[in-house]
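Every protein is a chain of amino acids, and every chain bends into a shape of its own. Below is the pair of lines this work produces for a single protein:
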Amino acid sequence: MDTRVKYYSLSAIHKKCGKELEQTALRVINSEDYVGNTAQFEEEFAEYTGAKYCCALNSGSSSLHIALKALGIKPGDEVITVSATFQATVAAIKYCGATPVYLDIEADTLCMDTTKLESKITPRTKAILPVHLYGNFCEMGNILTIAHAHNIPVLEDCAQAVGTEWKGRHAGTFGNIGCFSFYPGKGLGALGDAGCIITNDKHYYDIACSLRSGGVDSSVRVCYNYRMSNLQGEFLRVKLKHLDWVIAEKQKIANKYRKFLKDYIYMDPHVQHSYHIYPILTKNRDKIISSLANTVELKAHYPTPCHRLPHLSDATSLPITERWAKHTLSLPIYPGVNTNQVIENLNDYTMSFL
């Protein structure tokens, strides 16, 4: 019997809704209607986030690409973002033929350092793309003030921040468009790949819905086959009803970790963190992962920042990002995780925390 603590498990979540998921799958199968009918999920997710419009898509990566295209990003344009993120953020910029312009992150939040944002703006800057990394919340006030002053649209990468709020307002509703991923391990996870965008701007919504439908509107523009399947939309409707419970469980686990770790990434007291990932910074990250492999599964998100990946390389100096990539260690955080076992096994390494 494997007694190791897995990095992630869906068993507790699916215990709450497994029967309904099975019934949903059978209902969709028997309907013989499998593509192009996700309107109910879109309506319910828009209502949950407080957005006017939601466009369901087949992945978080597609949501970023579609959103940038809706904003009109094209070859020669620049998009300001961070290197401290999953590479899909930057890849979407490259899909459009645009150039990513990297900002460093704050050492205490691991989100975009907005103090240097204005210095990166040029006549070619056509969008700002902050990332709510790990489920924390970027300093959107500063970002929006600067963006409005220069008439630049803001696209929020909320792939890891479903359910994250600032003063009761959901991430993704501050900028022009918010992008979400429903990869299975996310707080709201499909049973496969899925994603969406939300917006309060009908113009962007209409373009996104047109672009996702692979040739339906091909007489007007080049389109993509980025539709969410009806089955994933229905699965997400089931799991959306349990999202607040998932976040509450993760918050309880985070509080236990915080008591043990003492020093944690700073979070604005007005933020409801959704804790997609619980990161710590440690001097001997790789040794810990290797040493505890048989007892606790740990991860590094992400050991190579985007600007150091060969296909996304950039000579920009990002010292905080480099430090983050070298030392970040992700702890298991999901409903049902054995936090005591995690803490006990990490106990020998507490003095090496940064």
Q: What stands out?
A: Residues 11-31 form the longest helix (21 residues). The first strand starts at residue 53 and ends at 57. The chain has two domains: 11-103+110-240, 243-352. The mean pLDDT is 94.
